[in-house]
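Supplementary notes for students who missed Thursday's class. We covered one full example, reproduced here. Read the sequence, then the structure, then the short commentary at the end.
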Amino acid sequence: MDQGSRPKRLAVSFAQRRRSGRAPPAPPPLLGARSHAGPADFAESWGSLRALRRAKSPLALAQRRIPMAAPDLLKAARSLRETIEAEADRVEETLNMTAPIVEGLVDSGLFRLLMPEALGGFESDPSTIIEVCEEISFADGSVGWSYAQNTSCMAYLAYMDPELVEPFARSRAGAGMFAPLSVVIREEGGYRVSGKHQFATGSPHADFIGGAGMELVDGESVMGPNGLPSILAYIVPMEKAVMKGNWDVMGLCGTASFDYEIPEQFVEAGLTHSIFETHPRSGGALYGLGPVPLGTISSCGWAIGVAKRALHEIVDIVTTQARTRMGSDPLKEQQVFQRDLALHTQALNSVRLLAHETYGSAVDAIARGESPETLEQIRRESKAAASYIVQVSREATTFAFQASGSHGLRNPNRLQRCFRDMYVGASHIVFDERNFVESVKERLGIVPLPF
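Structure (token representation):
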């Protein structure tokens, strides 16, 4: 399936926002290496991005004219491939996106991919989101993962007071981890928050960061309408958070997913939202998915992009380097390898279609005003689809790495990086296999868990 092609059903559903896809240009030669960064490297990279932040401040961005209609965002993403690949080694060394990549994403408007149109974003349809994230992730897994999380954080502004989030909407990007690890105490007009979190992915180039915690009144948890404790997400300016700079991991090394702390401070109620929220205050049906399912759209694009790169790399290895063993035919001529390559290619193409269909159908159902019960089941099925998409992507990446033999062990090596990135990203809780279980309980007469 051509990377730019799309399911016909979705072309009808999003006719006002679609444009015909085009096959991407051939990827550049094999590049990439793995190394570890020390405190000096971290400080140097952080300083360069802080300087870029000042140059690209919210005020400066506000002075730019935001176009009335979205440009060809997929074309913009493809135009950054050469830059991302050229910077990939440095991304891994310094633990985060380099300044040329960040500047390219800012200037192209791509950080606004998921942000509501009413707030100055593009409010893209699911297929555009998937394809853009796939394209950026094909270029580099760490950059793609950071980008996916940054854009999701911008999307969550949809659930907050439009007037209060206006300064945040002018930011380059947002970051944050929204597991309930903060203390969120209700006060008049808002909340007293504090907490220690992990995984501040993409934080060096973000202008705000978020956290989440159980809502407390007089030391007691507030119960939400779904029968679960109320869990509120919130955002604060980046300068009101303390970054730890401690990211030394196996894969996704260049995502700057540092630990961070939110010191005790007051946050207005309009800068919070329930993590179970499905009624946006800005934007349309896309945001009716709710924060968690909404965030998985970009992550599915990431998984597909990394897996496609892994398959591309193994084909490059077996066709340009004599991958064989003494007494055996070259690997590319062995039918078992040919069959497995075809199977993983078709499986990946299939889950790519699944991603487009699942999220496109879900947004259509929300727009039609289906019953709350129907929409809850659709959300459960979208989570299961995300888990399956990542499972198939991981299997394709594993096949490519195992087939590479010793070639996959040596640096510089993009395939090795795909393998490491995939196994780290696929372990994210949003892809938990519990999603499969919850998606079928209703059919079996069992009450699904509410979250």
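Commentary. Residues 335-368 form the longest helix (34 residues). The chain has three domains: 8-169, 174-274, 285-444. If anything here is unclear, bring it to office hours.
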